[in-house]
């Protein structure tokens, strides 16, 4: 009788352990599947997002760059974009820096959106979803550089959206 009771207790422990272990495996696989689906959704968004440079104009302490949204995705979170610049300042030093997004009128190492247009060169403003950079529209950004830009020097500009799409250009100021 004693062996039957101890055998039943051991059997219950084994069944409980196996069910707990099986539950943990299923939960782990579900987390793995959820992560995989999130990665696929992000990759699909990156594949449908495309921006290219449509032009740039540089002054002594600023750069105006025009971007074209030639993808299939609307972009809105510009404060989450990353802008990197590599240029020589007026003192002749190479400056490689990340610039934050700001909507201020003071000089500093930052950038702002100057407007979204159907045609930036013609000054034709956007008509659909204000403040959203939709496919086919052009975005003009102004980059402020208080150290200025050295004349006749190369400038490399790299813009990365919040979804990971990027545009890169090199031009002479």
Name the strands of the widest sheet in spatial order: 1-2-7-5-6
Assembly type: single chain
| Poorly predicted runs of 5 or more residues | none
Tell me the series of helices and strands, N- to C-terminal. HEEEEEEEEE
What is the rounded Rg? 27 Å
The chain-level structural class is: alpha+beta
Average pLDDT number: 86
Span between termini: 94 Å
Number of strands: 9
- Shape call: elongated
Q: In DSSP terms, counting alpha (H) and pi (I) runs of 4 or more, how many helices?
A: 1
Largest sheet: 5 strands, antiparallel
Measured by DSSP, the beta-strand proportion falls in 35-45%
Secondary structure: helix percent: 25-40%
Written description of the protein model:
With 173 residues, the protein is α+β, with helices and mostly antiparallel strands. It is built from 1 helix and 9 strands; from the N terminus they run H-E-E-E-E-E-E-E-E-E. It has one helix spanning 2-48, and strands at 51-58, 62-69, 82-88, 94-99, 110-119, 124-125, 138-144, 154-160, 166-172. The strands form 2 sheets. Strands 1-2-7-5-6 form a 5-stranded antiparallel sheet, with no helix packed on it. Strand 5 and strand 6 (124-125) form a beta hairpin. The protein is elongated and about 95 Å long. The protein starts with a helix and ends with a strand. 19% of the residues are buried. The mean pLDDT is 86.
Give the SSE layout.
Elements: H1 2-48, E1 51-58, E2 62-69, E3 82-88, E4 94-99, E5 110-119, E6 124-125, E7 138-144, E8 154-160, E9 166-172
Antiparallel strand pairs: 1-2, 2-7, 3-4, 3-8, 5-6, 5-7, 8-9
